[in-house]
Write a structure and sequence with these properties.
alpha+beta; two-stranded antiparallel sheet; two-stranded antiparallel ribbon
């Protein structure tokens, strides 16, 4: 029976020793709750302010904004969140805000078929060749 209890205790301690992206959702929520309580003590937040921070962080975790290694500074040894990258605290209003990083979208390059290439090439040639008719209409100039 003692061996079973030791194995359970060992598993309990080892589940938070993974890097942040490798933690499961429940472990991340647990670590976020500990971060919120530590921040509440550090910044002397009221219960309402702590609830709004909790709502913000849990929403960010749910929608995937806190999944990358660079998003959260997490210590594997201490099993604690040190900081959250884009989380800003305004001391005067005692409010937290999170700046979502801008996502870069690459445009997919469409490959042209031979027919498309032919038509685009003929358009380029036609636009380069202009015909001018002089006022007496007896002379055609190609530029």
């Amino acid at each position: 029976m003692e061996e079973l209890l030791l194995a359970v205790e060992k598993e309990k301690n080892a589940r938070f020793s993974k890097p942040w992206p490798k933690l499961d959702k429940g472990c991340k929520m647990n670590r976020l709750n500990i971060f919120i309580s530590e921040d509440q003590e550090k910044n002397e937040l009221s219960e309402g302010e702590a609830k709004s921070l909790k709502k913000l962080l849990l929403h960010l975790c749910d929608n995937g904004s806190l999944n990358k290694l660079g998003d959260v500074d997490y210590s594997d040894e201490n099993h604690r969140i040190i900081s959250i990258k884009n989380l800003k605290y305004d001391e005067s209003s005692k409010k937290y805000s999170f700046n979502l990083p801008k996502k870069t979208v690459k445009t997919a390059s469409k490959s042209k078929s031979n027919i498309d290439r032919h038509f685009s090439r003929s358009k380029d040639i036609n636009s380069a060749v202009k015909t001018e008719v002089s006022s007496d209409k007896s002379e055609v100039v190609i530029k």
